[in-house]
Automatic annotation (TrEMBL):
Belongs to the bacterial solute-binding protein 5 family. Residues 249-595 form the Solute-binding protein family domain. It comes from Natronosalvus rutilus. The keyword NAD does not apply. Keywords: Signal, Transport. Pfam families: SBP_bac_5 (PF00496). This is ABC transporter substrate-binding protein. Signal peptide: none annotated. InterPro entries: SBP_5, SBP_5_dom. Residues 259-290 are annotated as: Disordered. CDD domains: PBP2_NikA_DppA_OppA_like.
Amino acid sequence: MDRRSLLAATAAGCSLSLSGCVREIRSAVNRDRLEPLSVTITTQPADGDRQSIRLSREIAANLEAVGIDVHVELRSPQELRRQVLVNHDFDLVVDRHPGGADPDFLYEALYSRYAEESGWQNPFGVTNIAIDDLLERQRRVADADRREVVEQLATLVAREQPFVPICRPDEVRLVRTSRFDGWRAEDITTRLGYLGLEPVGEGGALRGAIMDAAPSQNVNPLSAPYRGPDPVVDLVYDPLAIEPPGDDEVVAWLAEDWTWDGGEGDGDGDGNDGGNGNDSGDSDDSETGTGTLEVTLREHAFHDGEPVTADDVRFTYEFLADTSMGSSDVPAPSPRYRGRTSVVQSIDVLDERTLEFVVDGTEAIAERALVAPILPRHVWESRSDPPNVPGVRLAQGTTEALVATNFPPIGSGPYQYADHVDRQHLTLERYADHFTTREDVNLPAPTAESFRAQIDPRSTSAIALIRDGDADVTISPLETYVLDDLEAEGDVERIESETAAFYHLGFNVRRAPFGDPYFRQAVAGVIDEAWLAETVFHGHADPIATPLSPEWTPSSLAFDDENEDPVVPFHGSDGDLDVEAARAAFEDAGYHYDGDALVVRQ
């Protein structure tokens, strides 16, 4: 074991967090009264996410059985994300985490530096030196060693339980082939799923049913409360590169090509017309340091006719790092894309279409930083001031850029804004001058004249729109309770796709007793992931003990044939909690009971 790994292991064993130590010392000095523990689980109502509320109620019942008073608090999707991701005002949260195909998404989710930032940047408030060390290492080691480091990281995260991964649901959608054909299951979760379709007959407008009203209320690509994985808004904005689902390599998009010069060995990026920049030459087993990506842009223009320049790209990355543009006492980073772009140390504009990115990490990690949406400087530069949003409490450091509804949006993507009606629809029209429509570019292009995302809150009514011929695709994945009766017929096809998203119980470790990993482990022991996947999701989900995608999950963290959590087994079987064993786990963690109530120091 090398010195760095030894330090990581030592720190892990101590579960050491500097800020956590300070809080615990203060607690020991200032608090000595034992009071019954009362917690709140924040989640969505049934009309927002039926599965989240059912998970919350099952978890709440088991926590109450072990002596914890639980209140389930229902919030709309936007309110929940604002409360949890922006204001960090929660005890426990049950929600769908966007996850990531590459393990590097954990850098965004858990790195200590982001504990006080907003968005999916460490909403749990984790501060753990050992986790940070492994997060940094997996960005620096050559491919030959990365899997070993990721396994160490996943094992440590599973032991620390900053959140409890519950299950990864099946993603199923319906499409009609009578007006557009060529639907691709592997792409339908991204912008690529709505490009390159084959019009049948006159084709015309592409019509989608979506169960989230967010696109009709806000098209700000930086908004944490309104944006999850969102192919609709992604059609309006172009990144330098895209990540096709199931592909380990990024593909050049707005970037024409790039070249890499770094610690893994020199290599030429060949991103022309749908290639990728991943030709790094032979790698060794050592850690890499700083490298450079020289990126060349395609000739292109934003929807308002202004050219996309290297200056817009540099502005975008600087703006993502600090949306206050240096006007605030502390930086106000974007709550989205922060983890990806944090490897970018600086950007130099070489000419109108060429930039040099100085990055800290391997070539593969550097290329993943190219997926952020490119913003027009002439639109976003004026949004660096603090906002005024009546009736909404916002975290300190929030800027107008992070809360603007952004109507009309000005991007450079394959589709441009046409109109919208709140809670009814967002309609886009084809951007005829998009670079994908050029004969010398081999990328999927927009073929529909327009794209209408019609808001429909329920799976059953969205299915009816498809079957009645009033929609061509269910943009949102259908809820699992309808899947057993969902059959393809005629020109209606069922499409199943993989997802990186997973359901989880998250702890706000900024608050006692959730900062204690032994308490979190005891809570995890009352959750039967396999039973919840079978009952709440009607068997259309896989129980998980790690948030990593299946191809990155170590065998030691995979559920076995008995469907038992390999790290924190459920105290009971088939959903029936062994209350005595679960209470003993809390006592073993150092907590006490006053009668039937679990008590903690107040």
